[in-house]
Write a structure and sequence with these properties.
mainly alpha; single chain
C-alpha cells in the first residue's frame, strides 16, 4: 500500500511506502495500477472515508450500490454545508 501525492513531500525528504518505493503515487498512477479510472478511484476513496460502518456493510453485502453510496455522501455533505451557511 502506498499513499498518494498531494503536492510535494518536501525538499530532500523521501517517504517509504510499504512496497519499498521512495515516493507516493499520483491518483492516476494508482488507478492505472488497479486497472480502473481516476474517477472510479476517487469515488471509492470518498465512499471509504465518508460512509459509516453500517453503510459500508450494506455496500459490502450488496444491499446498496456504489452509486447509491456516493449519492448518499453527496446529499449529506450538501446538507451539512447548507446547515452551516444558515447558522
Amino acid at each position: 500500500m502506498c499513499g498518494y501525492k498531494n503536492g510535494e513531500i518536501g525538499k530532500n525528504h523521501t517517504q517509504q511506502c510499504q512496497n519499498g518505493t521512495p515516493e507516493k503515487l499520483t491518483l492516476d498512477e494508482i488507478a492505472s495500477q488497479l486497472g480502473t479510472s481516476k474517477t472510479n478511484l476517487k469515488r471509492a476513496l470518498s465512499i471509504e472515508r465518508n460512509l459509516t460502518e453500517s453503510m459500508k456493510e450494506l455496500l459490502d453485502t450488496g444491499v446498496i450500490t456504489k452509486t447509491l453510496a456516493a449519492d448518499t455522501i453527496t446529499v449529506v455533505i450538501t446538507f451539512a454545508f447548507i446547515r452551516n451557511q444558515c447558522s
